[in-house]
Each structure stands twice: as structure tokens, then as C-alpha cells.
């Protein structure tokens, strides 16, 4: 899954181990369990900390740093989305806005800017919608998500009954 979320395989495996572990682990435990070098584990942990997906914890009587992942899957989802937004969506919005400030030189640029404006409006609309959704308690969000799948089923059935879907 890590590679699909934009992190390398090593980082994904470190995160999976921490997520599935019953207790926080130190870097030596992680390196030994996964068969990775200590330096690869350190770099992976730094990356996961930058994503806010792991936090450092201390254990009484032990000077080593231990690492743990959030236990609430909804919190993990929110952090992932926030980080993706910060790293990918916000720079894209900035680029689109900056590009649209430039006056078009010809018809081709006017066309390209019109397309970019449409994309900018869609991304702004979806991020504003997500901001509102993100404020909902996890229970409400889960009900809303389940409702969406039920609505899709109803629409599918209605389409079949009305002869829709035939081209």
C-alpha cells in the first residue's frame, strides 16, 4: 500500500510493522524484525515523522527512542489526506493561480487558461467540500460514506429499470 500512497517500500513496511505492533518499537527492533539496516530504518522513521504518521515515545528507564503509530484509523486517514493536500494539492493550486495571473498571448493560451481555470475551480470546490466533511465526527462520516454506497446502488437499479446504460 505504501507505494500507492507515494512512499517507498521500506517506509511502507516500517509503517505497517508499527501499525500492527501492540507496543511501540525502537529502531533496533524494527531493523531486526524487517531485516533492514539501521540507517534505512532511521531514514524511514524520519520520513514517517514528517508525514505525522508515527510519533516518538519514551519508556521509563530506557534511553532509546520508541516509535508508535496513531491507533485511530480515522485520525490516520485525516493525517494522510492533510499531508497529501499540503504536499501535492496546495502546490498545484498555487501553480494554477500563478499561471492564470499571466495574460494570455494568443488563442491557444486563452484556451489553455480556460481549461486550467476549470481545473482550479474543481480542485477548490473539492478541497472546500473536504474541509467541511473533515469537521464531521468519525461516526457521522462513516454513516455518510455508507449512505453514498446505498445511493449508488439505488441509482444503478433505477438506471437498469429505466433502460439506462444502453447505448
UniProtKB/TrEMBL annotation:
Q: Which Pfam families match?
A: MarR_2
Which keywords does this Swiss-Prot/TrEMBL entry list? DNA-binding, Transcription, Transcription regulation
Domain named HTH marR-type: which ranges? 6-64
Q: Which InterPro entries match?
A: ArsR-like_HTH, HTH-GbsR_regulator, HTH_MarR-typ, MJ1563, WH-like_DNA-bd_sf, WH_DNA-bd_sf
Q: Which GO terms describe its molecular function?
A: DNA binding; DNA-binding transcription factor activity
| Alphabetical list of SUPFAM superfamilies matching this protein | Winged helix' DNA-binding domain (SSF46785)
Its domain of life reads: Bacteria
Name the family the entry cites: Belongs to the GbsR family.
**Record's protein name:** HTH-type transcriptional regulator
Organism listed in the record:
Orrella dioscoreae
Amino acid at each position: 500500500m505504501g507505494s500507492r500512497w507515494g512512499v517507498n517500500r521500506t517506509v511502507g513496511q516500517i509503517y505497517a510493522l508499527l501499525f500492527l505492533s501492540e507496543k511501540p518499537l525502537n529502531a533496533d527492533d524494527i531493523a531486526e524484525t524487517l531485516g533492514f539496516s539501521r540507517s534505512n530504518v532511521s531514514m524511514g522513521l524520519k520520513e514517517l515523522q514528517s508525514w505525522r504518521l508515527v510519533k516518538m515515545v519514551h519508556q521509563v528507564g530506557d534511553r532509546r527512542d520508541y516509535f508508535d503509530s496513531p491507533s485511530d484509523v480515522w485520525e490516520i486517514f485525516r493525517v494522510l489526506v492533510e499531508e497529501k493536500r499540503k504536499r501535492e494539492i496546495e502546490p498545484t493550486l498555487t501553480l494554477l493561480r500563478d499561471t492564470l495571473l499571466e495574460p494570455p498571448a494568443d488563442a491557444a493560451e486563452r484556451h489553455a487558461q480556460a481549461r486550467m481555470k476549470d481545473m482550479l475551480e474543481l480542485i477548490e470546490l473539492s478541497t472546500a467540500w473536504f474541509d467541511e466533511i473533515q469537521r464531521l465526527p468519525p461516526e457521522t462520516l462513516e454513516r455518510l460514506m455508507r449512505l453514498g454506497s446505498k445511493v449508488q446502488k439505488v441509482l444503478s437499479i433505477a438506471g437498469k429499470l429505466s433502460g439506462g446504460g444502453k447505448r
